[in-house]
Amino acid sequence: MNPLTRRDLFAAGLALGMAPLATGLFAKDQPNAPDRALGRMFDDFTAEWVRHDPNLATATRYFTGNEQDRLERQLTPRTLEWRQERIRRARQGLAELRRFDRDRMTDRDRLSAEVMDWQLEMVVREEPYLDYAFPLEQMNGANVQLVETLTVKHPLQSERDAENYVAALGQVGARMIEAVAEARRLEAKKIIPPRFILAATIRQMREFVETAPARNPLVAALVERMSGIGSLSGGRRGQLRAEAEKIVATQIYPAWNKGIATLRAQGAQATDDAGLRRFKEGADIYADALARFTTTRLTADEIHELGLAQVERLETEMDLLLRRLGRANGSVRDRIEKLKLDLRYPHPASEESRAQIMRDIDGIIRDAERRAALLFDLRPKSPVIAQPFPRFREANAAASYNAPASDGSRPGTFQFPLRLEYMTRLGLRSLVYHETVPGHHFQIALQVENQELPRFLQTRAFGGISAASEGWALYAERLAAESGWYDGDLEGHLGQLNYELFRAQRLVVDTGLHARKWTRRQAIEYGIEASEVERYVVFPGQACSYLIGELKIIELRARAKKALGERFSLRAFHDTVLKTGAVPLDLLAGAIDRYASSTGNASGGVPHG
Fold first, then answer.
1. pLDDT in tens, 463-479
2. Are 314 and 346 part of one and the same domain?
């Protein structure tokens, strides 16, 4: 692969890389012996990978029968040894994969092999930086992921599912103790989170343990979802609930309290230095994170400058719309904040307002499904639902999407944080489009359902590819505006632009924190709320994937339009992007070029230039 360069990025204002044109979306030749062997390698290696990751096996329901049942009663270890073994396995997979001659592969197999190669290479490249992911933190720490694995991703459709849930619940305390041990190991190496991350994480963990066990999310999710299992007797429900409450009270809360005590003790050594630059290897760690999340070779400085340019463009466009609303005084930021307040739900902390915004979200999803039928031939069969985050996560969570299970046992799930900043109608529609229809749900659920893809791509067994998935979701936001979904709703259109502005500001702030020694206060003053800034501190580079991915998709659409002229079909373009799935951006470019070339050849040729 040839990762993208700065020259690619700025060409024509939007370009984010070019890939050579080829013929045919996918070659029509029949699989030969190497192709069948490659398919076996894909299947066998992925199965072994999933077999060593019970959380992944549970979320994807990868196996069947006794093997799946066994894995659903376990939780993935939170140890350094497990991560090192994962890297060893990735190296083994790369060596096996690279024995195959890619020149002999079909286009489809070659694309799959290149995606697997890229993903496993990213795992291997983590090795020097394993110490720089904090085991306990407010976004992705064990204190968050252990709860989400069970409450969102664990199946609960039968009595056996409920029994497996409780069995896995019995491992939560042990897995938290592993994370605490990791935090202490890193503390001995003077690698601890910034003081404000410690404070945010401690607040979150305290709220978790200060809830009565019967109302803890781990118990509440079990009780709520057991109510839909018709074959489960009331007596058995009561037994399982009582067992879950006991585990939470006697195992999980003590483990959480050990974590809280560890973080409190670290506070004495912590500083407010926010970015990776505070570490000796910080520049290398951040460069690796940017490469992973953007799938490009763009430097922090290049991304920072791109963000500044996009902020200027978007603020100019927003100023014009604000003036049309009679809001001409003050900065764009001040006028948008005033508009947010004017569109805030009344009594935003009340239970009625919390319920109303969730009803509104459901309505937006259903309306988007109707509108999307005009723009997409491919639409997922899996339903998508919206639910609020548990209360203990509200203060730190960002809206998110979880994929459906491949066997239909779990829908796509949009989680929404019901905190004050989100309790406004400004931008609500755009956020829902991003996370559900036609954003994440369309791309990710269709990838899960696409039987033409190797199973490792269907299940995202080696992880997501943020530039493609977040880029698509941000493209979906803009597509809605381009397609007239905001006609008659100027405030809604401003909300869409404000979310795009937010993604441009992220480029500036993320690179500012990690490459330019920005402080948390500087980032907040630039216009990003505190919980978001704290997200970038513990999840470096990921926030840069959104706008870079979106600009690439827009550039590829323009390229296909230029090549095909009147033969260009927006539906066919969307079909190609969605059938290709989440892949590195240069591989997506190649797929789009093959689509344009094959469509043009079938219609008499495409002028290239």
1. 999 999 999 999 999 99
2. yes
